[in-house]
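re: the backbone from monday

yeah here it is again, tokenized this time
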């Protein structure tokens, strides 16, 4: 099933999405058709789960929550927490007009410089989630690293990385924490976090970034992309 969702703050900016559904047909007189619901995930056509060892755009997030609901004032939305930034196929920093005029995205359509969306406004209490990554892949080593590329935004804050659920009370597992400091350069930075061994994460798992800060209603950082390595 193909559908789209809003990105940015403008109702007219959209991101294409896809999810599998199952159709069961009972043949004969009195037969019926059953159509399953599609789950809102980050997988796209990777039905067995995303490869954690590929680099993924932050904008494939399928879970975005905040401490207050969105205010809808058509055609714009006001967010109090994380949301997927609209992009138009240009390199980061380009205006909408520059991005639309850029030809590079046609030469390298899968390059994350062009085919990506950032996740912005990551305030205290925000949660950004991804379903699902398939960690059933053999490797040599005793640990994994999460490499998260982000832009610090001048305040102290913490990103708690969770597996399965964003709350321990619901079975979520804390994989580690990334600390951001107010004096960090406000430029694209790759942060490395050691996480439990792959044996602890075998199979498909969701991944969540939970943001916390003593500075309320100010974005801690902008998420760009991420990958795992061993």
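seq for it, each position gets an aa:
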């Amino acid at each position: 099933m193909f559908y789209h969702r809003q990105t940015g703050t403008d109702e007219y900016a959209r991101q294409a999405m896809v999810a599998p559904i199952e159709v069961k047909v009972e043949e004969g007189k009195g037969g019926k058709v059953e159509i399953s619901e599609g789950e809102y995930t980050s997988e796209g056509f990777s039905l067995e789960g995303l490869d954690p060892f590929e680099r993924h755009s932050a904008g494939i997030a399928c879970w975005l929550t905040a401490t207050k609901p969105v205010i809808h004032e058509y055609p714009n939305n006001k967010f109090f927490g994380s949301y997927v930034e609209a992009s138009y196929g240009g390199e980061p920093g380009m205006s909408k007009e520059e991005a639309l005029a850029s030809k590079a995205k046609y030469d390298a359509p899968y390059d994350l410089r062009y085919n990506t969306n950032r996740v912005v406004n990551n305030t205290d209490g925000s949660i950004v989630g991804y379903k699902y990554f398939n960690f059933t892949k053999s490797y040599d080593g005793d640990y994994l690293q999460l490499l998260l590329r982000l832009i610090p935004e001048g305040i102290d804050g913490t990103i708690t990385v969770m597996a399965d659920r964003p709350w321990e009370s619901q079975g979520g597992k804390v994989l580690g924490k990334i600390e951001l400091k107010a004096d960090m350069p406000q430029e694209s930075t790759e942060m490395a976090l050691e996480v439990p061994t792959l044996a602890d994460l075998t199979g498909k798992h969701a991944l969540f970034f939970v943001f916390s800060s003593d500075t309320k209603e100010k974005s801690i950082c902008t998420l760009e992309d991420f990958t795992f390595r061993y």
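The mean pLDDT is 92. Helices lie at 96-101, 104-107.
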